[in-house]
């Protein structure tokens, strides 16, 4: 296993910078998720680690050695692709054993090793089948087995679960989590699914427009998102973001917005600095930190009910503040709520996130 480092890595396609001056390091045994919307540069970053793309500038190091211009086969990495990329004319045994074959291992020993890995992944009984004769979930595990059959320094995953249905996806996610804990592999995993990143990663690199906007543990990203972009990307449903006007009243912070009042927040130097620049702030509250309250309560937000979705153990109660500005609460309620009923949702100061006019987190 080994570490991975990006030093000022940029990748341009013509005038367009797909990855822009990225610096980050992945420790030995870490499972890092690159998370972000479509087109933010995740796959390009992964392909540069694999050696399938060459950076326009900057350096990539694996295990402390520079590999920026090294051929993929000389990097000792294993990659799992979104479309599995299995060889259609080879049975599972040959598919899985392939990395050992190209390294010159004899038939008996490479098939023995392939079988061991396949058994762990519960596809050992399918070794004679062709990829077309097994299910999508089994194909996904075959592709995983092929990556794991030879000990690599770093394992790279490009949205490996995205072709699976929801149930298989959850099962495969749990399996990957188990594997990571068991093997302690160094892995980089590209996804645009925040739940997958939260479940698997030791650290998440949230990317936007070719840059890393936050690189931290899942819990840090959930508790202290660095920007409104990150706040809105992580969490299910994502954090509610409400435009508010901030003022200082009797040495404390008061917030006002459409249907919203909040008073008595402690003033800090950081808030003072943000207010000196602009009174326009964004208040963030996660759906799980809102609860139903009486109309007119302090520290609450009120608007007509837009939707009430029963999720089994809880409901998603969404209110509409006009012009599509909606706020969703994840709550346990048996209350009957009708569309257009005025609904008030309260929150406590400890669960409030504040962002300045530029969308940057104001530290507590
Ligand atoms: P997705 O989740 O959709 O796979 P991504 O975050 O992985 O997206 P990349 O595939 O890294 O994004 O692409 C980043 C940007 O670079 C995109 O705007 C894409 O169109 C552009 N891009 C990627 N490869 C090339 C290429 N070979 N030539 C030109 N532009 C490219």
TrEMBL record:
List keywords of the entry alphabetically.
Answer: ATP-binding, Cell membrane, Membrane, Nucleotide-binding, Translocase, Transport
Gene3D superfamilies in the cross-refs: 2.40.50.100, Nucleic acid-binding proteins (2.40.50.140), P-loop containing nucleotide triphosphate hydrolases (3.40.50.300)
* Domain (ABC transporter): residue spans on this chain: 4-234
Q: Which GO terms describe its molecular function?
A: ATP binding
Query: What family is this protein classified in?
Result: Belongs to the ABC transporter superfamily.
| Official protein name in the record | ABC transporter ATP-binding protein
């Amino acid at each position: 296993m080994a570490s991975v480092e990006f030093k000022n890595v940029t990748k341009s396609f013509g005038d367009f910078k797909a990855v822009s001056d990225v610096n980050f390091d992945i420790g030995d045994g870490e499972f890092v998720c690159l998370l972000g919307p479509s087109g933010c540069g995740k796959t390009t970053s992964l392909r540069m680690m694999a050696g399938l793309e060459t950076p326009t500038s900057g350096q990539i190091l694996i295990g402390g050695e520079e590999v920026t211009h090294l051929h993929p086969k000389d990097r000792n990495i294993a990659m799992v692709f979104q479309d599995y990329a299995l060889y259609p004319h080879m049975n599972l045994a040959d598919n899985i054993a392939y990395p050992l074959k190209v390294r010159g291992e004899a038939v008996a020993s490479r098939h023995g090793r392939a079988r061991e890995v396949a058994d762990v992944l519960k596809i050992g009984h399918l070794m004679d089948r062709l990829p077309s004769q097994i299910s999508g979930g089994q194909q996904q595990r075959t592709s995983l087995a092929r990556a794991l059959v030879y000990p690599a320094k770093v394992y790279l995953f490009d949205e490996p679960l995205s072709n699976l249905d929801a149930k298989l996806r959850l099962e495969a996610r749990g399996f990957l989590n188990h594997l990571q804990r068991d093997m302690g592999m160094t892995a980089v995993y590209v996804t645009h699914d925040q739940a997958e990143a939260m479940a698997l990663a030791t650290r998440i690199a949230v990317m936007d427009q070719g840059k890393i906007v936050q690189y931290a543990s899942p819990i840090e990203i959930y508790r202290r998102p660095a920007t409104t972009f990150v706040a809105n990307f992580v969490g299910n449903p994502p954090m509610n973001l409400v435009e508010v006007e901030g003022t200082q009243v009797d040495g404390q912070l008061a917030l006002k917005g459409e249907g919203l009042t909040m008073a008595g927040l402690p003033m800090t130097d950081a808030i003072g600095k943000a207010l000196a620049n602009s009174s326009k702030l964004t208040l963030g509250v996660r759906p799980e930190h809102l609860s139903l309250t009486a109309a007119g309560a302090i520290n609450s937000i009120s608007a007509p009910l837009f939707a009430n979705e029963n999720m089994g153990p809880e409901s998603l109660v969404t209110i509409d503040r006009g012009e599509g500005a909606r706020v969703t609460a994840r709550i346990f309620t048996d209350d009957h709520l009708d569309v257009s009923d005025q609904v008030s949702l309260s929150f406590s100061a400890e669960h409030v996130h504040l962002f300045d006019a530029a969308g940057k987190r104001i530290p507590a």
